[in-house]
Amino acid sequence: MLIGVPKEIKNHEYRVGLTPSSVREMVHHGHEVLVETNAGGGIGCSNEDYEKAGAKIVGTAAEIFDRAEMIIKVKEPQKVEYEQLSKDQLLFTYLHLAPDPAQTEGLVKSGATCIAYETITDAQGGLPLLAPMSEVAGRMSIQVGAAALQKANGGRGVLLGGVPGVQPGKVVVIGGGVVGTNAARMAMGLGADVTVLDRSLKRLAYLDDVYGPRLKTQYASVDATEELVYEADLVVGAVLVPGAAAPKLISKDQLSSMKRGSVIVDVAIDQGGCFETSKATTHQDPTYIVDDVVHYCVANMPGAVARTSTFALNHATLPFALALANKGWQKACADDAHLLNGLNVHNGRVTYKAVADDLGYDYLDPTSLV
Ligand SMILES: NC(=O)C1=CN([C@@H]2O[C@H](COP(=O)(O)OP(=O)(O)OC[C@H]3O[C@@H](n4cnc5c(N)ncnc54)[C@H](O)[C@@H]3O)[C@@H](O)[C@H]2O)C=CC1
Ligand SMILES: CC(=O)C(=O)O
Ligand SMILES: [Mg+2]
Q: Which domain holds residue 64?
């Protein structure tokens, strides 16, 4: 198969769809790989590194969109990218369609087959291609939150770890999945007072088991969520209903009862965010303030640590990318129901139920396609 890897164009996005090592695996399996010039510059991988791995370097993204049978990216395609997609092309990347009607319409119009990393499942009920970036974003959420708590950044001037004789900061994590667990771990590491809320008792039991009394867990009732958020210095939004728009858990009204200078890091912003006042920001201008509460809502947090993130992401995506290249998407999805769960759009139809429901499209059951 002819595979294409364009350079990412989202604001401060330096990750790349394939590392040189992944290119080598593709070439080893008999595939041809086109990589846009300097696509790996931001992770310290040169054109020469890619050529050594067997890739052909091309000068423009247009050539890749024109020629490649499968396009492998990291971020959801931007307008100029989805406008270049065509029928019979396969797109393999993060999509996050539910909160993004314009992109969804663009992909539907393109006729392309679009498989989203974030809805591919595993036998344990996890999301194995979302997990590595959730680990990164969860860990980052505490470092960006700690910085935002500094006075010069609009925060209330609280050091998360406290010092002898002064209480630590209060960190509340809503959603105890992969992002939430990694956030809690980092916050505990800094010495903060940490509580994780979740609606899954199984998840809370797991966290209690692993971290013991060092971590407080709380069932995420409306009451408990409100009470803890009002007391918090830093709140991390980390909920997910796979593929669907994030539930809004804190309203604008409730926000006004939070402490002045407290901080929200809404990691769930790529699914629309779980605070009513959240809107996506960029690494260039990551925060804004509403009612004296600092909001950090960057939808591609792992792009900031692109080298770590790209290698972690490729470890998870490569087996699926290889299956798609080796067998073609139809056979690969027929052989693997978990990969089929990644199919979001095909030939002008929406094939993921939560996306169809959230955006008002007719749903086409993907099992009818394989
Ligand atoms: N902004 C960014 O750069 C990044 C964002 N993300 C996003 O972070 C979010 C979380 O991802 P993961 O941790 O991997 O998901 P996950 O599926 O591992 O965890 C989500 C947790 O939320 C819980 N939950 C669902 N509804 C809830 C509710 N109403 N109240 C309390 N808990 C609730 C679930 O029980 C689950 O434990 C996703 O939207 C994901 O796309 C992930 C990576 C990077
Ligand atoms: C998951 C996601 O949105 C990201 O890594 O940017
Ligand atoms: Mg994102």
A: 2-120+306-369
